């Protein structure tokens, strides 16, 4: 009888332990679920398409896995023009995301409309600030375009600049060597004998090449300090006339109906192609496997080199809650970190944000395996930011229109540039 009672007590005690374990397990699961469900959501709008979409989503996934407090949710809005339009529309209906991609040229307009959160307090103060080591490590040219009116309104992200792509097979066929200057490149036009092959292809609108050549010749097309348009200045006119003369004599062409010239270059219909280093990913996808090609620093123009910084940064919107802003900064800081900058540059062709990334064994091995990315790094000493101001979006539309009028409508260069100068003066005056 005693043994029977002992057995019953033993079974009851075991049952209690099991029930306690089940309860604790259930409670533990509820805690984990609660942590997941109570993450602060950070809505993020981007404009990364094609080969950049997968790395962009992976960057977000990696951040979400790195901590349990915030969850970034990325939503693609189309191209950069689509993104800018949707941001302005969302501002009117108070439906802005927490963070978004933004070309640095869009920042003045967003600031004028009171949309952006200044980042100075996050960057320089508090436990999550950037250290002096961080700030010294990030390339100054990228930090500079993150600044507007003495405030940081963005952080560097998708930074790129223009390089010269070249087809080694066509160069060998026509007896052309790598040019040291644009003037030398122009002289090689006579060597290209095939009617269906051009010496060089530009994008549908070659505004960044025009600005790069104008800078090399001695001017920004809008003076940074005074916001005075210099479109009809001698250096600017020299740059535009040089490009237009190549188009008129048939040695160069634009990409026509296609916005970008990478397909023409990858299709081996041009010996050279001048465009952003981020296009390397498209050329890799489109070019035949047996096509021998490379990239180089843009040649000199009038004895100097210049290449315009492009791409986009990350901005934070004012209407977010304090908790969302803290999460947005955590994501921004994650993007700026050395490991993520290394991975991002390797997978997208965008520029490494930090000097330490370029000097790392991992990135040097990447350059060894994929040398077409070296030219972008070697171009950094010649990089400059275009001048930005409120009304820049309309200014850029007028710039593109002027180029289209010269190329498609055969408008005289002087007349088109005079018209662009007047439009630029009016835009800047109206937005002061």
UniProtKB/TrEMBL annotation:
Stretch forming the signal peptide: 1-34
Pfam families: SBP_bac_8
Family (UniProt): Belongs to the bacterial solute-binding protein 1 family.
GO MF annotation, one: maltose binding
GO biological process: maltodextrin transmembrane transport; maltose transport
GO CC, any one term: ATP-binding cassette (ABC) transporter complex, substrate-binding subunit-containing
Name of the molecule in the record: ABC transporter substrate-binding protein
Ranges in a coiled coil: 403-430
Keywords assigned by UniProt, alphabetized: Coiled coil, Signal, Transport
Signal recorded as keyword: yes
């Amino acid at each position: 009888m005693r043994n029977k009672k002992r057995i019953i007590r033993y079974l009851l005690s075991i049952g209690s332990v099991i029930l306690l374990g089940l309860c604790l397990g259930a409670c533990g699961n509820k805690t984990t679920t609660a942590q997941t469900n109570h993450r602060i959501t950070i809505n993020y709008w981007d404009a990364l398409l094609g080969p950049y979409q997968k790395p962009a989503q992976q960057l977000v996934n990696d951040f979400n896995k790195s901590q349990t407090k915030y969850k970034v949710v990325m939503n693609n809005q189309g191209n950069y023009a689509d993104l800018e339009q949707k941001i302005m529309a969302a501002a009117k209906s108070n439906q802005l995301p927490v963070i978004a991609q933004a070309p640095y040229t869009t920042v003045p307009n967003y600031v004028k409309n009171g949309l952006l959160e200044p980042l100075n307090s996050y960057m320089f103060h508090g436990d999550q600030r950037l250290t002096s080591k961080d700030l010294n490590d990030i390339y100054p040219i990228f930090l500079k375009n993150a600044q507007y009116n003495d405030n940081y309104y963005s952080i560097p992200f998708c930074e790129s600049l223009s390089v010269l792509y070249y087809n080694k097979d066509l160069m060998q066929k026509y007896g052309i060597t790598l040019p040291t200057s644009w003037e030398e490149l122009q002289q090689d036009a006579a060597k290209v004998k095939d009617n269906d092959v051009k010496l060089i292809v530009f994008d549908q609108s070659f505004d960044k090449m025009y600005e790069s050549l104008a800078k090399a010749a001695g001017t920004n097309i809008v003076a940074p300090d005074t916001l005075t348009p210099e479109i009809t200045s001698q250096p600017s006119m020299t740059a535009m006339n040089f490009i237009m003369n190549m188009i008129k004599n048939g040695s160069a062409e634009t990409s026509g109906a296609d916005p970008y010239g990478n397909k023409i270059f990858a299709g081996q219909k041009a010996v050279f192609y001048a465009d952003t280093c981020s296009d390397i990913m498209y050329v890799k996808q489109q070019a035949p496997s047996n096509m021998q090609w490379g990239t180089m620093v843009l040649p000199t123009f009038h004895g100097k080199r210049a290449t315009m910084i492009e791409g986009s940064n990350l901005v934070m919107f004012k209407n977010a809650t304090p908790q969302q802003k803290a999460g947005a900064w955590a994501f921004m800081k994650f993007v700026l970190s050395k490991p993520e900058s290394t991975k991002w540059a390797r997978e997208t062709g965008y520029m490494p944000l930090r000097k330490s990334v370029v000097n790392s064994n991992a990135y040097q091995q990447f350059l060894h395996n994929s040398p077409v990315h070296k030219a972008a790094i070697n171009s950094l000493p010649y990089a400059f930011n275009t001048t930005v101001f409120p009304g820049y979006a309309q200014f850029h539309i007028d710039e593109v229109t002027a180029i289209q009028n010269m190329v498609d409508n055969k408008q005289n260069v002087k007349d088109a540039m005079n018209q662009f100068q007047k439009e630029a003066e009016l835009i800047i005056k109206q937005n002061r």
